[in-house]
DUF397 domain-containing protein (Streptomyces lycii), 72 residues
Amino acid sequence: MTGPETDLRAAVWHKSSYSNGSGGDCVEITDHVPGVVPVRDSKAPQGPVLLIPAPSWSAFVGALKNSDAPTA
């Protein structure tokens, strides 16, 4: 079970390709923890991390890819 005790100090974080270069909208994820996708704000790497269940993250990303929402 993954919880608040999850150690992410050795995690390799990847910034979203949709994050902009001017310091805003910066989201990072890591695949360091099986079964969940840790998500954080790259502007606050020592801040909180959301632990999203992997199936929920896949559904979220899939919905974004299939939506008509603007990407900019």
